[in-house]
């Protein structure tokens, strides 16, 4: 009985290790969008692992606050960094993009993504309406 008890306890206490097979979209995806109606292209870098999406989109043309020489309200700074999150599925899926801005100016949008072979096509459903083609890399 003691010979069976020890292996049984070890089997119950030790969690089984389940390795997930990599999905068809897993990997690092990079690309650049067109300027859209804002004429501000974004550089995308998205990581997909087991269907979980994490990434960023940066705007090199974004400008921060400027000195106010005319005593009027200054223009709001444009977001230079977008954080991207969501779940990837084969075919098409949507992601959430949230701008990194200070204060109460919370900006967020939805990205529609379509996988076509070895490329991902990312389209903004609001905002500037930019379209990007991402490839693994």
Quick recap of the structure?
With 137 residues, the chain is mainly beta. It has one helix spanning 2-13, and strands spanning 27-33, 43-49, 52-58, 81-87, 92-99, 108-116, 119-124, 131-136.
Overview of this structure, please?
- The chain has one helix spanning 2-13, and strands at residues 27-33, 43-49, 52-58, 81-87, 92-99, 108-116, 119-124, 131-136.
- The model has no long low-confidence stretch (mean pLDDT 81).
- 18% of the residues are buried.
- The chain has 137 residues and is mainly beta.
- The protein has a single domain, classed as Lipocalin, CATH 2.40.128.
- The chain starts with a helix and ends with a strand.
- Strand 6 and strand 7 form a beta hairpin.
Strand order within the widest beta sheet = 1-2-3-4-5-6-7-8
In CATH, the architecture is Beta Barrel
Number of strands: 8
Cα(first) to Cα(last) distance is: 56 Å
CATH class assignment: Mainly Beta
- Which residue ranges are poorly predicted, with pLDDT under 50 across at least 5 consecutive positions? none
Net shape:
elongated
Question: What is the radius of gyration computed over CA atoms, rounded to a whole number of angstroms?
Answer: 22 Å
Structural class by secondary-structure content: mainly beta
